[in-house]
Amino acid sequence: MSEHRPSSLNPLLEGRGRARGRTGREGEGPEDGDDARPSLARNIAEWVAILVGALVVALVVTRFLIQAFYIPSASMVPTLHIDDRVLVNKLSYDLHEVNRGDLVVFERPSSEVDSEIKDLIKRVVALEGETVESRDGRLYVNDAPLDEPYLSAGVQTNGLDRQTVPPGHVFVMGDNRTDSRDSRFFGPLPEELIVGRAFVKVWPVVDFELF
């Protein structure tokens, strides 16, 4: 009698065995471990993308929105001192008009020849169409004395003849009236030279102040 020996004890188990042999442990492919570990090149590419994106954002912000400026002289004492840092909003005057009392950063007028300092900061004391002059050590705008609590005690404003601010201009002065080259010297400032409005002092940190 011929003898027939089955090729497997259980065809179902045999199929499972072959399947397990092809894939290794159930639920895990042969390359799962490699895929779970990002390559060094991928990490570098991600960090480069992050840094480039941050640089682009910083350039857009400083070009169109907000920029930091340092104070190069004593012309704004006691409000600002040499090497103080302020942030300037470049969009302010796209949204509203210049106001009296604003601290504005502007490009140095062409009549001022000092090329080392290209941007200046002063306070707006009179607007277009207003008259401005000094009388008895005080500043008068439209024939009324201007309240100036930001000046140091005893500071006087002298030597300013009566004049009218022309259209498209503002009259700017430093808070340190005895040590400031301002509109008394270079005349009313064209508004087109204004870079923006200084709205906060950020350095020194202990002197943080909103304007």
Description:
The structure is a single chain. A hairpin with a 2-residue loop joins strand 5 and strand 6. The protein has a domain at 66-210: Umud Fragment, subunit A (Ribbon), CATH 2.10.109. It has helices at residues 11-23, 32-35, 40-65, 92-95, 183-186; strands at residues 66-70, 85-89, 103-107, 119-126, 131-135, 138-141, 144-145, 163-164, 169-173, 189-190, 194-203, 209-210. It has 211 residues and is α+β, with helices and mostly antiparallel strands. It is elongated. The strands form two sheets. Strands 1, 2, 3, 4, 9, 10, 11 and 12 form an eight-stranded antiparallel β-sheet that branches. The protein contains five helices and twelve strands.
Compact overview of the structure:
The chain has 211 residues and is of the alpha+beta class. 24% of the residues lie in helices and 26% in strands. The protein has a domain at 66-210: Umud Fragment, subunit A, CATH 2.10.109.
